[in-house]
Amino acid sequence: MKSFSLAFFTLLAGATVLQATPRPVANVDWRQHGLNAAETRFSALSAINTGNVARLGVAWSADFDARSLRGVEGTPLVVDGVMYASGPWGKVLALDARTGRRLWSFDPQIEGAYARRGCCDVVNRGLAYDRGRLFLGAFDGRLIALDARTGRRLWSVQTTDKAQNYTITGAPRVVKGKVIIGNGGAEYAVRGYVSAYDAATGKLAWRFYTVPGDPKKGFENKAMAMAATTWSGEWWKVGGGGTAWDSMAYDPDLDLLYIGVGNAGPWDRMVRSGGKGDNLFVSSIVALRPETGEYVWHFQEVPGDEWDYTATQHMILADLTIAGKPRKVLMQAPKNGYFYVIDRQTGAFISGTPYVPINWSKGLDPVTGRPDIVPAARYAENGAPWLGLPSPAGGHSWQPMSYDAGRGLVFLPTAQMPYGYVAAKPGEFRFDPRGWNTGQDPASSSMPEDPAVREQIRGMMKGALIAWDPVVGKPRWSVPMPMPWNGGVLATAGGLVFQGNATGEFAAYASDSGRKLWSVDLGTGIVAPPVTYRIGGVQYVSVAVGWGGILPLNMGEALAKAQSPRVNRIVTFRLDGKAAYRLPPVAPLDLPPLPASAGDPAVVAEGRTLYHVRCWMCHGDSAVNRGGVPNLRYSRAIVTPDLFAAFVLHGAAEPLGMPNFGKELTAPQAEAIRAYVVKRAIDLKTVPDQP
CATH: 1.10.760.10, 2.170.130.30, 1.20.1250.20, 1.10.10.60. Which one for 601-686? Predict the structure, then answer.
């Protein structure tokens, strides 16, 4: 008995030892733009959680090669221990995801002059990965395949007509061996479309146009013939717009690819369609067959769009129980301010509730979802200015949201901003093949220069992170932000929601309450969404950092407290991370030597108009800029006519992205613009910039 007991306990002890041996913990990648085909951006990782998130520290950081500090909007991918990240000008980094060590880099060599072809900074929102290949949509319209191991270019195709002002800023998606890519440029007189290319060869598989072309040339398919019945006049001569510049999602069970379609071009419906028609498929979600591009259904959110209310914002696929019944849904919070839930099998409307204050619509038809548009909002038809909510920047823009199915919550970055819509006077629209073609009068719609009025308007501009219940159509909680341009969102099973913001703060909030649990100052504004992954049993959280995009460039007045551009980099965190985090010093902004006055008021007035036609998209409304391009009020380039002309008329900084306007502006016109900017710089002596 004694020997049996000894043998038994020896065996038991051995078994205990075997059970206690830890099994290897599998690595967890972030292989797709939205983490999965449904684009939920919710990670099941929970090693970092509400109980220990306060221990987060920097694990490593890595900088992009900066031609200039521009907006960083990309979602990094993590595949088999390697991080792939895209930055400004489409530059790609491959990094060891544990250490940040650079493995290779790729530069698509975008010509600096091409920067003028886009409205909203030379940004890139991410890559696609499939079977050892990476796919990059380059700003100049190329789709490029790279060897993920070496960075070697495998193939490259031009997806756009380079004679027109198409750009690509969105991330491709790979579905069933095809790389799907859209484009931007609706404000630049182009016709939108989505293309699919064979992932192995780069051969074009199909193309689906989002608005109809010239009827005399015939229609590509029945969908385009149907869409053409909703247009009037000769819309094809001014483009039509409808560019699909960002969001997509895919349901493998239904075999449906969902495309978000952008705004009409020009914005002014009188110019493009005689003030008539729904103008399909602008501001719509369109479902296609991914193998053929065949049209299946559409849901239009903004018929006859006149406000840049795109439907290109992030879409999430989910299964919800609504009125006691399971529904396969698609959720979207587009620019127009309504949170939509639609049936993703049929495109049928389920619900739509405002998630920010709006004044363009009285509500949505409960059956069709069609908006009851306020008559005054039809500013082009009325010939009267209109102050709209949301602005063209949207109640929510491209910054991705996330969905926690367990809690039934969508975590959503929002913005509140008014905007003055002012149509060009009848007969004054001038089609500009190289420029901005909204049909708006940009000088009239710019912000008043009276300091008191500007301060009042600035007070109306705010942002928030909200937890939205899509079933009841109400927020569960809301965290106010000091400004309206903040980062995309990541949610995790650790009960956390991660987001960066315009002040440079990267923070973790409790999913159930919105309570801030941890934050760090990264020294520059953040707009990109975070990702998380696990390698060797360690969970990491990573975010791309770099201030920029459309709002810092052209609506700087709303972002007075933003952290100025200082770096373009990836920053990665882990529990108890101890890596040093260093920033370059902030360059002081000192006024250049200025005269006592800007000179002839008539010349200044002419310069103000010219400035808001040619310059404001990059250098800011009323010369207030907080992005990655020079703040002209502090630039020595404005001191003398010759130096100013070197940049504006002779292309001295064209390699960096500053256009050469020598073919569009005369020397006296350039001098008038300089006089206006000098006047705005002199204004700073009495009304300094807000910190």
Answer: 1.10.760.10
